[in-house]
Design goal:
Elements (H helix, E strand, L loop, with lengths): L2 H13 L2 H8 L3 H15 L4 E4 L2 E4 L1 H29 L5 E5 L1 H6 L1 H11 L7 E5 L2 H10 L4 E5 L7 E10 L1 E5 L19 E5 L5 H11 L6 E5 L2 H9 L4 E4 L1 H6 L5 E5 L5 E9 L6 H17 L4 E3 L4 H9 L20
Parallel strand pairs: 3-4, 3-5, 8-9, 8-10
Antiparallel strand pairs: 1-2, 5-12, 6-12, 6-13, 7-10, 7-11
Keywords: DNA-binding, Transcription, Transcription regulation
Family: Belongs to the LysR transcriptional regulatory family.
Pfam families: HTH_1 (PF00126), LysR_substrate (PF03466)
Length: about 325
């Protein structure tokens, strides 16, 4: 399996045709066809179904593409790094963050760090990925620092601090409920709810709060990012119960953000790999993210990372409750 074959495969998936892939890579159409055929022969299954000049990935091709895309991105990173070393450039600062934190919090944190002159590498690479991918990037060295929702049960990462802020309701500015200073979960009765689709993270807490309040929804729209939820709300499709970082850090016109009368906490923080000591630039950014979060979120509570184990237990364990998880009497295990 050669890089040229993988590049040809990815180019055909991206462009939808062998001819266009050839133009993209600067190779002839027969050369691209040959590379794809060689790769299929080596793999033992077809990567594409063909209909005239157009091709579509098979189910196996789609599944393989995810891995190939990551591999090619890693190769490009190696090429960029080699070129930077040849120029004498310093090491870039590589950041992985969830879409919410990448859009709503990281820009102001970076601006703050640069303003202080504590974190100003020539190159910064920012990647918005899922919480699981943030952890993977930090563990594998693809990222120097990760901004992630919490809790996470992974050994090998250091949690520098835990931020806690209440979830909010977002609704159209012309919605009658927008005139209220806060939104009750009872106000959501018989309204369509826009919420996150991952049932094991924030969605779990939202569903529990609605169930405890005895509030059935008229319908639910699931999405994988808060910015998607905000655009759905702006289109008049429902009320979104969201983490506060995107709602406050990336406000949209005609969207009202209101506190909720229920305790639905959002937890987030900064992680780095335990195996490598954090650089001065990384530590400066860790503090800048905390300061930016304090400026953005009026109700922010900063928790000690040693409380991470108790947080995991309260949210996913069989015992313990969120209301007393940070009680002085609680035995708090050290974080992983």
């Amino acid at each position: 399996m050669e890089i040229r074959q993988l590049e040809a495969f990815a180019a055909v998936v991206t462009t939808g045709s062998v001819t266009a892939a050839g133009r993209l890579l600067g190779r002839s159409q027969p050369a691209i066809t040959r590379l794809i055929q060689e790769l299929e022969a080596e793999l033992g299954f077809a990567l594409f179904t063909r209909s005239g000049p157009r091709v579509s990935p098979t189910e196996q091709g789609f599944l393989l593409y995810d891995e190939v895309e990551q591999t090619l991105a890693g190769m490009q990173q190696i090429r960029n790094r080699a070129a930077a070393l040849a120029r004498g450039d310093g090491r870039p600062l590589r950041i992985a963050a969830t879409p919410a934190l990448a859009a709503g919090l990281l820009p102001s944190a970076l601006a703050l760090a640069f303003e202080r002159g504590l974190c100003a590498p020539e190159r910064v690479a920012v990647q918005g990925v899922s919480p699981e991918q943030v952890v993977h990037a930090v563990l594998t060295g693809a990222a120097d620092i990760g901004l992630n929702s919490l809790p996470l049960e992974h050994r090998g990462v250091t949690v520098h601090w835990i931020g806690q802020s209440a979830c909010v309701a977002t609704l159209r500015g012309d919605d009658p409920l927008a005139a209220q200073a806060s939104i009750s979960l009872q106000d959501c009765r018989a309204r369509r709810i826009v919420t996150m689709q991952n049932p094991y993270r924030l969605r779990r807490r939202v569903d529990r709060a609605l169930a405890s309040a005895g509030v059935p929804a008229a319908g639910v729209i699931d999405t994988n990012t808060s910015i998607n939820a905000l655009t759905l709300v702006r289109a008049g499709l429902g009320i979104a119960l969201l983490e506060p970082v995107t709602a406050r850090g990336l406000p949209l016109a005609d969207i009202a953000v209101r506190p909720i009368d229920a305790d639905i906490p959002f937890y987030f923080g900064v992680i780095t790999p335990q195996a490598r000591p954090a650089s001065t630039a990384v530590l400066a950014l860790v503090q800048a993210v905390a300061d930016a979060a304090a400026a953005l979120l009026p109700d922010l509570l900063m928790r000690d990372p040693a409380e991470h184990g108790a947080l995991l237990q309260s949210l996913y364990g069989d015992t313990g409750a969120a209301t007393d998880m940070f009680s002085p009497d609680t035995d708090l295990p050290s974080h992983d």
